[in-house]
Design brief:
The chain contains four helices and five strands. Helix 1 runs antiparallel to helix 2. 29% of the residues are buried. Strands 1-2-5-4-3 form a five-stranded mixed β-sheet. The chain is α+β, with helices and mostly antiparallel strands.
Amino acid sequence: MEKNTNLKKIILDTLDSNKALDIISIDLKNKSSMADYMIIASGTSSRHIQALSEQVLEKLRANGVKNSKIEGKESLDWKLVDGIDLIVHIFNPDKRKFYELEKIWSELIPKEKVMI
């Protein structure tokens, strides 16, 4: 678990140093079994979103998450970097507002309703 916390910090620092906007981290440990953390950030352009996702993927792999991958490679507005226990969404600000993942995942979900 501590490894995931350290990895989360590395990814947050990577996004911040590469000028990602509105970076947030959501603890999923008591909400979902799919991952321990979800990180959501915005990029300023499709190139910035792509570059951020590649930087995150590189950091994950350099820190032992060999099966990590980028989803949404064809999308200009959104990328998901699957770091197994850590999921990173990088959005165009308009798409981020449309999907409202922060709102969905920040709400407390009763344990008996957690299915993922």
